[in-house]
Amino acid sequence: MKLHAIVDELETARLAVEGGATVVQWRLKDVEQIDVVERGRATRSLCARSGVTFIVNDDVEAALQLGAEGVHLGRGDDGAERAKDNGLLLGLSAATLEEAREAENSADYIGAGPIWETPSKTDADPAIGLVGLSEICAAVRIPVIAIGGIDVTNAADCVRAGAVGVAVIRAARDAAGLRRVIDEAV
User: Fold this and answer.
1) In CATH, what is the architecture of 3-185?
2) Exactly one of 27, 44, 134, 179 is catalytic; which is it?
3) For residues 179 and 21, what is the distance between their CA atoms, to the nearest angstrom?
4) Is the model's pLDDT at 109 over the cut of 70?
5) pLDDT tens column, 28-41
């Protein structure tokens, strides 16, 4: 769970996998489920061949159709119970300590953030910073993945604050650099 590369196309997924991503999260916003599945098949295949965990963002049914290992749900997404009933790894988003504690009851891991402001998600909550990340990590017993504004310059800080790994969108193509700084921080 060290490095989640959140991608929306095969080439970025390939670069991330080659660079050492441990998880590829397939994230297509505002796209019909059939297109999420159809466009995700090649990335799913890449992950299977490479031994990288494949997770689908926001859509349990698409995750099941793609044979994904897991699904990551935002706070407004339905399907946590269906995901667990079908044996999917379940990640839930949390921006506050209260949300993290609630997510701990059903999730396998928590995506905590945003740590810093990020242009990748225009409707993101206010940044929680390393202090907020550290508080969440200390309060829950399941793995915490830091997300939001993370790149090679600050990923190690997230790990030192208690996160088991980081999730990136813009920096997914720099997976090799990210893995290097994360591995050195452990």
Assistant:
1) Alpha-Beta Barrel (3.20)
2) 27
3) 7
4) yes
5) 999 999 999 999 99
